């Protein structure tokens, strides 16, 4: 074994960090300065957090034990929440498939159609589902239909992007062979592209259902149906024990959907 003094000069330890350039150093300073400014503007205060701990403890105390007075109503609202997520996901997935085909460069009939489909998907994806819910509440009124429509639009934005990427990454060999045999575009997509991209389609759809289940809870806060409105009413009336029941019910629903999704993913993929 060599002692440290016997290690050759060519085997000296590398530097732990690379020396940054002046430009990188300035960029880091700007990022740190913006972070410090953002902390100040958002009112982050450890003192306020520390002072709020007794209030949190009091709130937790009032939540225990959870109330079972409106268990049946909470159960029906929970079922409605999942129905919104399920219908919104199924319809959104079905609608996103043709839009994703148009957004795939080598499957789209024209570059203009490809760009239009890409921008439509991006628009649906970037606007939050809560904003869609507000728009649909104004358009079709309060209730689960508005929430379901919001989930449909959100799923088109989410699934459309990943479906298009999956079809873009599919091996082109079988498609080129079918094209050489004179196969039409629709037959090529159905017989070659969809089967190859199906595992990704299923995986994305199951993640969409999990995401929609969580989203449908929040949509109720703006009157778009589901159990969210039950939670808002309970909090507004200071029925914290009832709110605890609703939160536990939401937790159970989300965990159940995630477990079922994981089981289906293992069986299908």
Strand content: under 5%
**Topology, number of strands:** 0
Mean pLDDT: 87
Sequence stretches where pLDDT stays below 50 over 5 or more residues? 1-5
| N-to-C series of helices and strands | HHHHHHHHHH
Distance between the termini: 52 Å
SS element count, helices: 10
Helix content: over 70%
Largest sheet: none
Describe this structure in words.
The protein is mainly alpha-helical and 269 residues long. Helix content is 76%, strand content 0%. It is built from ten helices and no strands. Helix 9 runs antiparallel to helix 10. The longest helix has 35 residues, at 185-219. The two termini are 52 Å apart.
Salient structural properties:
10 helices, mainly alpha, globular, 269 residues, 0% strand
Short synopsis of the structure:
The protein is an all-alpha fold. The chain has 10 helices and no strands.
What is the strand and helix layout of this fold?
Blueprint: H1 22-41, H2 46-63, H3 71-103, H4 111-126, H5 129-140, H6 144-168, H7 173-180, H8 185-219, H9 228-236, H10 240-268
């Amino acid at each position: 074994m060599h002692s440290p003094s016997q290690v050759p000069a060519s085997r000296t330890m590398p530097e732990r960090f690379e020396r940054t350039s002046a430009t990188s150093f300035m960029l880091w300073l700007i990022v740190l300065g913006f972070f410090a400014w953002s902390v100040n503007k958002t009112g982050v205060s450890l003192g306020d957090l520390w002072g709020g701990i007794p209030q949190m403890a009091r709130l937790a105390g009032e939540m225990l034990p959870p109330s079972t007075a409106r268990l049946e109503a909470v159960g029906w609202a929970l079922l409605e929440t999942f129905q919104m997520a399920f219908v919104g996901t199924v319809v959104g997935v079905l609608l996103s498939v043709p839009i994703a085909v148009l957004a795939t460069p080598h499957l789209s009939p024209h570059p203009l159609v490809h760009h239009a489909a890409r921008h439509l998907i991006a628009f649906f994806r970037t606007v939050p589902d809560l904003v869609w819910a507000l728009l649909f509440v104004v358009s079709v009124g309060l209730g689960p239909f508005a929430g379901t429509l919001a989930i449909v639009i959100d799923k088109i934005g989410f699934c459309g992007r990943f479906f298009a990427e999956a079809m873009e990454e599919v091996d082109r060999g079988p498609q080129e062979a079918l094209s050489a045999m004179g196969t039409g575009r629709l037959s090529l997509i159905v017989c070659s592209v969809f089967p190859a991209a199906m595992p990704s389609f299923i995986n994305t759809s199951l993640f969409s259902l999990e995401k929609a289940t969580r989203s449908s809870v929040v949509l109720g806060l703006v009157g778009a149906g589901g159990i969210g409105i039950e939670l808002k009413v309970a909090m507004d009336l200071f029925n914290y024990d009832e709110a605890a029941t609703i939160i536990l019910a939401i937790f159970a629903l989300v965990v159940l959907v995630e477990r079922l999704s994981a089981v289906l993913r293992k069986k299908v993929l």
